[in-house]
From TrEMBL:
The keyword RNA-binding is assigned to this record: no
Protein name as catalogued: Fe2OG dioxygenase domain-containing protein
Taxonomic superkingdom: Eukaryota
Organism: Lophiotrema nucula
InterPro entries for this protein: DIOX_N (IPR026992), IPNS-like_FE2OG_OXY (IPR044861), IPNS-like_sf (IPR027443), Oxoglu/Fe-dep_dioxygenase_dom (IPR005123)
Alphabetic keyword roster: Iron, Metal-binding, Oxidoreductase
Keyword Flavoprotein recorded: no
Gene3D superfamilies reported for this sequence: B-lactam Antibiotic, Isopenicillin N Synthase, Chain
Protein family: Belongs to the iron/ascorbate-dependent oxidoreductase family.
BP GO annotations: small molecule biosynthetic process
Fe2OG dioxygenase domain location: 181-308
Gene Ontology molecular functions: metal ion binding; oxidoreductase activity
A family per Pfam: 2OG-FeII_Oxy
Length: 349
């Protein structure tokens, strides 16, 4: 995709990682502006090697190609308090601030998310131990995922350093609030589906939602389908496709609260890719006069979700509020309490 057509800014993060004080400040301002205006930013030269990203997609495809009964040897536990392991299509239902149990059950029944996922986290996270397949079922999968995690972890801490500079947070900045790296590495597979099913809301890939941690990294394949809402025009979504060698980064609800809405936790969704335009969404008619439905191809993505240490109090950061013109908008919450409330809405207990 041409960068000039993207509504999301593209920033060279290599200038921050390798530059001096002035360059770091320039990049920090660019990221700050992107998060204030859009809530998303593409980062080039981000430090996660392309070879590692490509290998992660390869392992993702190998995993999801396994038979269902094999993948179910590493099952996601009931409920959302232990967010690890494999979730089959329809188990998870992403919503935007919907917590009523009856309404959630109805949404899962009427329009389940048509995707499957596997979650893993920091090997030192005792609160949510990882759930792996038996090694012989997919040799090398676990070791690679455990090696990919710190690559993304380091990038998150680099972005936190940039945000600290943008807000003039005194040393050591925001990074220590994430010192336990209670992060989540997710691999996602959206099976192929008839475009008509998505257009008529018979099924969804992921409904419009905001993330609920602090930061999200997203590596996505070339299929497309991710859309980001225009913060100034609710209901108006624009495509956010993959840009070669760039990672897409967005603000989550916790960081929005922490910044007193200086930074936007922007709603986004996954739907019909732009390559399948409105003229081809309807079933085609072949030369024999028979209807042929357009199929949206399989899509793979790799999000990496960051959140602060469990006991971190999320209260408006200095520089993001004042008593007179910009008072605090939210009550204080702990990072863990807020995330667990949102997680509980994703899964049946």
């Amino acid at each position: 995709m041409s960068e000039s057509k993207s509504p999301i800014p593209v920033v060279d993060f290599g200038r921050f990682l390798n530059g001096g004080k002035e360059e770091k400040e320039v990049v920090a301002r660019q990221i700050d502006d992107a998060f204030r205006n859009v809530g998303f930013v593409y980062l080039r030269n981000h430090g996660v090697g392309r070879g590692m990203v490509d290998r992660c997609f390869d392992w993702s495809k190998k995993f999801f190609d396994l038979p269902l009964d094999t993948k179910m040897l590493a099952p996601h536990p009931p409920g959302g308090s232990h967010h690890r392991g494999y979730s089959a299509p329809g188990l998870e239902k992403v919503t935007q601030h919907q917590y009523d149990a009856n309404e959630l059950a109805k949404l899962r029944q009427d329009m389940p998310d048509f995707k499957e996922s596997f979650e893993s986290g920091n090997t030192t996270d005792e609160s949510q131990p990882n759930i792996w397949l038996p090694e012989e079922k997919l040799p090398g999968f676990r070791s690679f995922m455990e090696s990919f995690f710190p690559e993304c972890e380091n990038l998150v801490h680099g972005i936190l350093d940039a945000l600290s500079i943008a807000l003039k947070v005194p040393e050591p900045g925001l990074s220590p609030t994430h010192s336990e790296s209670l992060f989540q590495l997710r691999i996602l597979h959206y099976p192929s589906i008839g475009a008509d099913e998505l257009r008529k809301n018979k099924r969804s890939r992921i409904n419009a939602h905001s993330d609920f941690g602090t930061l999200t990294l997203l590596f996505q394949d070339s299929v497309g389908g991710l859309e980001v809402e225009d913060p100034n025009k609710p209901g108006n979504f624009k495509a956010a496709p993959a840009i070669e060698d760039a990672v897409l980064v967005n603000i989550g609800d916790l960081m929005a609260r922490w910044s007193n809405d200086r930074w936007r936790s922007t709603v986004h969704r996954v739907g019909i890719p732009p390559s399948i335009n409105t003229s081809t969404v309807n079933p085609n008619v072949n030369t024999e006069g028979k209807r042929e439905e357009v199929t949206v191809p399989d899509r793979y993505s790799i999000p990496f979700f960051a959140t602060a240490n469990m006991d971190t109090i999320i209260s408006a950061l200095p520089g993001c509020w004042d008593e007179e013109s910009n008072p605090k908008k939210y009550e204080d919450v702990t990072a863990w309490g807020y995330v667990q409330m949102r997680m509980a809405a994703l899964y049946d207990a």
